Amino acid sequence: MIITTARKPTSKTRIFCKHLSKFTGKDYLTRGKTSLSMLADTSFLVVGESNGNPASFNFFLNNECVLSIRANVSLDKEIDLPGEPVIKGDTPLAFALSKATGLRMGESGERVIRVNDRIEFIDKGIPYIILKVLEARGEGIV
Fold it and tell me: Which end of the chain has fewer surrounding CB within 10 Å, N or C?
């Protein structure tokens, strides 16, 4: 999966995408004028913004949006660990996020993405990124 931004992102959104890339172990691509159709051969996440802040997360598989999340974002600390995190949760959103990202479901690990009414990216028990989910749409989500 590739993480990228909408066109002309603010520096805050670019920095957020780089942090998200580090946490998930996924590649970050500076989009520039690249068309989304150029990314059609891979799965990708487009991080959009509202009022200059990261706010929307659209996951694409086979050039089709399979999951869309709107959220308020907070970023608490720096991280630089190897390996992939696991997704923890039994909600439809947790399963949709696992499918959209290719990350496995699990109960424990040093890095966990805990999904309930929020999506928390946790490193060694300490929250790293917190998304307060405002809205989610996609396959299997009510």
Answer: C
Per the model's pLDDT, the better-predicted residue between 9 and 84 turns out to be: 9
Asked if residues 91 and 116 have their Cβ atoms less than 8 Å apart, the reply is yes
**Any domain includes 29:** yes
Query: How big is the chain by its Cα radius of gyration, in Å?
Result: 14
Domain holding 126, by residue range, is 2-137
Q: What is the DSSP string of 9-65?
A: --HHHHHHHHHHHHHHT-EE---TT--GGGGTTS-EEEEEEETTEEEEEEEEETTEE
What CATH code is carried by the domain that includes residue 9? Answer: 3.40.50.10480
Q: How many domains does the chain have?
A: 1
